[in-house]
Design brief:
This protein has about 325 residues and is mainly alpha-helical. Helices cover about 75% and strands about 0% of the residues. The protein is flat. It starts with a helix and ends in a 7-residue tail after the last helix.
Length: about 325
C-alpha cells in the first residue's frame, strides 16, 4: 500500500518538509538571538548568507506542501476503490483513526505555508530585510505543525488495512453521528446560503473599506476566515445537494469525482486561495509602518486583498452556476 506512487510522493514531501523545518528551526533560534544588521562582523555576514539559503529552501518546501494538500485529497478519492464500504475520499479517510486528523493537519500546514511565503515575500521587499526576525519566529511556530503533519500522515498510510470494512459519506452525514460533519449537514439549506451571503457581504464591505482607507486589513482577514467557514458549511448543507440533485446527499468529497465534472475543485481551489490571501494581507498589516516597507508593502497588501476578493467572487459564481444548472428544486 505504502509503495504506491502518490503515497510515496506525499511521504517524500512530508519527510523533506520535516527535515528542512528541523534544520531551519535550529537556524531560526540563532537568528532570533543574534541577528543584528548594524554588526559588520564575519558572523553577521555568514548569517545573512545563510538566511538566503534557508529561506529559499524552506520556501520551496512550503510550495511543495501547497500542492501536497491537493494530491492528498485526490489520492484519498482515488484509493476508495481499494476498501470495502468506501465510495469516495470519506471512506478512505475513515479507514483508520489517522485519516481525518491527517487531512486537518494538511489544511493547517497549507494556510501556515501561504502566510509564511507572504512574509518572506514582504521581507525581500525591504532593503534591510525588516521582517527577518518575524518570519523566522513564524518558522519556529510552524515547525511543530509540519512535524505533526508528517508523523500523522505516516501513521495513516502505515495503518491502512484493505481487509477493514470502512464507513463512507452515507454514514458520516446522518443524525446518528454527533460530529462536526453532521452539524454542518444539519444547517438548513436556506440558512446556510443566507449566512454565506451575509459573511460575503461583510468581507466585501471590509475589503472595500481597507482599499479606500488603507487600513483595516486585519478585519478583512477575520471576514475571510468567516467566509471560509461558511463556504464549507454551505457546500455540505446546500451546494452539494444541487450538484448531486439529491436532497439527502451532503458529501463534500464526492463532488471531486469525474462523474460530477470535478466541480469540487472549482469550488475549493478559489475558496482556499482567497482565504489564504486574505489571511496573508491581515498578517502583514502590523508592519505597514516599517520604514523600508512604507513604499512597497501597501501595494503588496492591496494586491493580496484584490486577489482574495476575486477568489471569493469566483467561488460565489461557481455556486450560482451550480444552483442554476441543477434540476433539483429546494425552494419554492
Amino acid at each position: 500500500m505504502i509503495f504506491q506512487t502518490p503515497i510515496m510522493a506525499l511521504l517524500l514531501v512530508a519527510g523533506l518538509a520535516a527535515l528542512t523545518a528541523l534544520w531551519a528551526g535550529g537556524f531560526a533560534v540563532t537568528v532570533l538571538r543574534r541577528w543584528d544588521l548594524t554588526d559588520m562582523g564575519a558572523r553577521q555576514l555568514r548569517m545573512e548568507r545563510m538566511t538566503e539559503l534557508v529561506s529559499t529552501l524552506f520556501a520551496a518546501v512550503m510550495l511543495a506542501e501547497l500542492a501536497a494538500l491537493l494530491l492528498f485529497v485526490f489520492n484519498a478519492d482515488r484509493m476508495s476503490s481499494l476498501f470495502v464500504g468506501a465510495m469516495c475520499a470519506v471512506g478512505t479517510l475513515n479507514v483508520n483513526d489517522y485519516g481525518f486528523p491527517a487531512l486537518y493537519l494538511k489544511i493547517g500546514v497549507f494556510f501556515a505555508a501561504v502566510i509564511w511565503l507572504i512574509l518572506d515575500r514582504a521581507d525581500r521587499l525591504g532593503r534591510d530585510y525588516p521582517l527577518t526576525r518575524v518570519k523566522y519566529a513564524a518558522l519556529l511556530a510552524i515547525t511543530p505543525l509540519i512535524l505533526a503533519d508528517g508523523a500523522v500522515e505516516l501513521s495513516y498510510f502505515l495503518d491502512m488495512q484493505t481487509d477493514v470494512i470502512t464507513s463512507c459519506c452515507s454514514k458520516l452525514f446522518t443524525p446518528n453521528n454527533p460530529n462536526l460533519a453532521n452539524q454542518m449537514a444539519g444547517v438548513g439549506e436556506a440558512q446556510a446560503l443566507w449566512l454565506l451571503g451575509l459573511t460575503a457581504l461583510i468581507a466585501l464591505a471590509t475589503g472595500i473599506a481597507a482599499l479606500i482607507r488603507k487600513r483595516g486589513y486585519g478585519l478583512y482577514a477575520l471576514a475571510s476566515a468567516l467566509v471560509f467557514g461558511m463556504g464549507l458549511t454551505a457546500i455540505v448543507a446546500t451546494i452539494s445537494l444541487y450538484i448531486y440533485e439529491n436532497p439527502n446527499h451532503h458529501c463534500p468529497f464526492c463532488i471531486l469525482k469525474p462523474e460530477y465534472g470535478y466541480v469540487g475543485y472549482a469550488l475549493y481551489v478559489p475558496l482556499f486561495l482567497a482565504t489564504a490571501a486574505g489571511l496573508g494581507a491581515g498578517a502583514l498589516s502590523p508592519f505597514q509602518k516599517r520604514a523600508s516597507l512604507a513604499g512597497p508593502l501597501p501595494g503588496l497588501m492591496r494586491r493580496l486583498l484584490i486577489w482574495s476578493m476575486a477568489g471569493f467572487a469566483s467561488f460565489g459564481i461557481v455556486c450560482l452556476i451550480v444552483i442554476w444548472r441543477s434540476h433539483l428544486i429546494l425552494f419554492g
